[in-house]
Design a protein that fits this description.
Layout (H helix, E strand, L loop, with lengths): L11 E3 L9 E4 L7 E5 L10 H6 L4 E5 L15 H15 L5 E6 L1 H10 L6 E7 L20 H12 L2 H6 L2 H8 L2 H11 L15 E6 L4 H14 L4 E5 L6 H4 L1 H18 L1
Helix pairs in contact: 2-3, 4-6, 4-7
Length: 270
Amino acid sequence: MTSPSTPLERLHFTSDSPVKGLAVAERRVLNPEATVICVHGGLDRGGSFARLVRRLETFDVVAYDRRGYQGSRDLQPLGLSDHVDDLCALVEHEALSAPVIVFGHSFGGVVALGAGMREATPIQLIVAYESPVPWILQHQHPRPTPTSDAKSEAEAFFKRMVSENAWNRLSEQERESRRLDGPALLSDLAALRNEVALFDLAQLTTPFTYVFGDGTRVDHYRALSEALVKVNHAIKTVEIAKAGHDAHIRNPDRLADVIREQWALTCASA
């Protein structure tokens, strides 16, 4: 994938995907500083990064629907290692033409860390926003174990993470589309319920910044960020004011600023 002679402002899907069946979208600019690969969280899709993409004016940006979700719904099997493999394929493809930054939102940050832990990864910076790291710090009020009813769990998750009013505003077609992502959501949630640490972050050498907002769970994220730094002193943390879990949608300006700032720091220390 190379930068076009005429820059494009918006994400558009491409047929040039390194993983067959993985729905990949891109926005290319002239002379990019780096390529930012955006990895979405549970019950989301690559298109949710559209506002963030428009604010990363000097970067190429790639976003994709993770396997099991939306345009990549037919890809099997579902599992964290499979998501990490997909991301690594994208990273290796993009690293041929530019330095690579991975931005992971929520569970997408877990996938990003998995890729960052791979030996000889070409990732030069990971930025994760409010990603769960339960083996470092469990939330004080964990959610109940999901049932096997994937469609019902997807609906309940959407109402909990976005709002019931937002669910009611969706068309029936849009609601069913979210419900059909239920199996992928259950797979994500199951990965986080494993009592064994997914990664030994003390061994992480890829530059990593953990970002969180000052929303309703700020106490948990502050405690988690402190715990992460204790595990690995190289980890950086950033708190964004007046931001909730959907900062990539509601606070894209500040989030883009953080990515630019952390990239500048990474380049300065190289």
